[in-house]
Amino acid sequence: MGNFWNREAETLSRDEYAKLQLEGVKKSLARVWKNEFYRKRLMKGGVASPEDVKSLDDLANLPFFTKEDFREAYPLKMNCVDRRDLMEFHMSSGSTGTPVVMAYTKNDLLQWAECMARCYTMAGLEPGDAVQIMPTFGLFNGGFGCYHGARKAHLFTIPASSGNTERQIRLMRDFRTKGFVSVVSYVPRLIEMLDKTDDPQLPHLKVGIFGSETFSDETRKRIESRLGIECFDIYGMTETGGIGTTGQDCPCHCGLHVWEDQYVTEIIDPATGKTVPDGEYGEVVFTSLAREAMPIIRYRTHDISRIVGREKCGCGRTSLRIDRITGRTDDMLIVKGVNFYPRQVEQALMEIPGVKDEFQIILEERHGMTDVTINVEAEPGVTGHTVAKHLRERLGFLPKGDVFPVGALPRSEGKAKRVIRRVLD
Questions:
Q1: Spatial CA neighbour of 255 closest among 317, 197, 347, 169
Q2: Euclidean distance between CA atoms 299 and 296, whole angstroms
Q3: Stated pTM of the model
Q4: Which of 118, 143, 325, 328 is CA-nearest to residue 242?
Q5: 373 burial type by CB count under 10 A (0-12 exposed, 13-18 middle, 19+ buried)
Q6: Residue 316 and residue 11 in contact, taking contact as beta carbons nearer than 8 Å
Q7: pLDDT tens digit string along 8-31?
Q8: How many whole angstroms separate alpha carbon 94 and alpha carbon 332?
Q9: What is the C-alpha to C-alpha distance for residues 248 and 110, in angstroms, rounded to an integer?
């Protein structure tokens, strides 16, 4: 379990992390203060000067930044460097509203590659190993982030991009792919196609790294059992600089290691904005320490997690660990007075023998009342009564729904659309 890309940075003492973080926060504040957009936003939040922060405790006095700030600043009002120093940009994968843009200097790209190299190495990939990159190459950050990190980690890169499942399988076989990066909802499609081939095994495949979507422990176990791999949950978003920038779980699978030499992590009460004690769930907030073009200051991610450990992990790393993301403050569903997240539905479904990976949550609103329908694929013999009974026990209410044969529900080559909303007359 001792695979390190940067052992020194990944095993600092708590005091060393704190010193480095305070220095980084001060540098980031000094940098953004020169930018009119940041400065006005900070001053509106009560900050008179970047010198106001003299300790990490003072970070709590700064205002939060949100996705709406990025949208208001579109395209480059948050850029803190000379335009000639920008080398690349990516944007959020959302299909509605003004996109969120993240621009990069040369050092920003190196920082991204460093974080990704740590993730690859922590997952057990070594120089020369073949890694297959399945996120799309384009404006979305996934494909290029994986690519920058793979080159940094000296991996044999297979830039397959998304889709074309038959080709993905052939590439895995022909080039002896050891690890791949993907959205987790694409894996059932890969397995379905693999099962249709003459040889449904991929003996060289050992590692699967999944980001962009939450997934349950039951889903992890199913994938690991079928493909004979070890699954890793990678964390990062456009606003923090891209995939892998904020961390990943290690072979101990006891939480996501946050790269504390790169980011300060807070967990806050979404309603009050106050920091919650370790162990309590809340919203994840990040402040970057080394980003140049577009640093983030107390950025509210909307992701729900908790701090699960600050002590040295069994893998040898000493960085803060947060729980795997359980959901988002903005994707919580409320039906018949019960609050729940799509991941809870997935976890409950995966506990039922014979139920497969594809499912839909359909929310239908009529005259202010919301009904939920949960459709799922399952093997013959699984009844709607069985599914409904288990969901009622786990979720606290009885949803509508039906059981479909395997292959009946729509498939996607990319991120799955699990929640469908309809407004009825």
A1: 317
A2: 6
A3: 0.83
A4: 143
A5: middle
A6: yes
A7: 999 999 999 999 999 999 999 999
A8: 18
A9: 18
